[in-house]
Amino acid sequence: MPRFHVDCPLSPGADLALPAGAARHVQVLRLQPGSAITLFNGAGGEWQATVTAMGRSSVQVLVGAHSAVEREPGRPVHLATGVMASDRMDWLVEKATELGAASLTPLLAERSALRLSGERAQKKRAHWQAVAVAASEQSGRNRLMDVREQLIFQEHLGAAEGARWLLSLDPGAAPIGELVQALPADAPVTVLSGPEGGLSPSEEAAARAEGFVPVGLGARVLRAETAPLAALAALTLTAPR
């Protein structure tokens, strides 16, 4: 059944005009009055709904029963990643949403290929949040991954949530499997990783000074957009819900 995110309150029996983005999606799918759809607003659970009217650019629906189903991992995982090239960041946001990340904070690191500021940074954040919305619609998530405001690398270090993990190629880094097994099932984790080219030695040192534990992902060198997803999968797909 098609799923749509709507950023507004929902209640059974409500007669609702879908927001422009969701309405366009319904039009593209060529749904008709009587078609059943699912709505969610990020506050938890989902609602059944029925299309009641189609205009040239508008769609009216009748909201039905609420289901309290949740599909979130039992463990909140927060990603903090050096900003990468646009296509790689888009892919990371999409897949992190599918794997259940609670949030993603883009970090402006020394080796970041994409350097944004001001209005450009805000537009890119809105774009990434829209990517997360689309990925939630596809994957069945009823809560949105929070794409947070871009921070300079050092600004984030003291604000990290829960256990602090630094993805590292250091031969002495702790194997991720051992750390996952030792972690309580519902313990939050912040996973810090670099952009293309990785974090600089000074950035790694600063992270360690703030309590980040170096974590290894095995013998192979993963791309900047792959490494945080590998860690995320280890944390969210093995933890009980």
Task: Please provide a written account of the structure.
This protein is an alpha/beta fold and 241 residues long. It is built from 7 helices and 13 strands. It has helices at residues 20-28, 86-99, 118-139, 153-157, 176-182, 201-209, 227-236; strands at 3-5, 15-17, 36-40, 46-54, 59-67, 77-82, 103-108, 146-147, 151-152, 163-167, 174-175, 189-193, 213-216. A hairpin with a 5-residue loop joins strand 3 (36-40) and strand 4 (46-54). The longest helix has 22 residues, at 118-139. The model has no long low-confidence stretch (mean pLDDT 93).
What is this structure, in a nutshell?
The chain contains seven helices and 13 strands.
Show unreliable segments. Answer: none
Question: Which sheet architecture does the biggest sheet show?
Answer: 8 strands, parallel
Average predicted confidence as pLDDT: 93
Number of helices: 7
Question: What is the H/E order?
Answer: EEHEEEEHEHEEHEEHEHEH
Shape: elongated
Structure class: alpha/beta
Helix amount, in percent? 25-40%
N→C terminal distance: 24 Å
Radius of gyration: 20 Å
Strand content: 25-35%
Number of strand segments: 13
Descriptive key words:
241 residues, alpha/beta, 8-stranded parallel β-sheet, 5-stranded mixed β-sheet, 13 strands, 32% helix, elongated
Produce the secondary structure layout.
Elements lengths: L2 E3 L9 E3 L2 H9 L7 E5 L5 E9 L4 E9 L9 E6 L3 H14 L3 E6 L9 H22 L6 E2 L3 E2 H5 L5 E5 L6 E2 H7 L6 E5 L7 H9 L3 E4 L10 H10 L5
Parallel strand pairs: 1-3, 6-7, 6-12, 7-8, 7-9, 10-12, 10-13, 11-13
Antiparallel strand pairs: 2-5, 3-4, 4-5
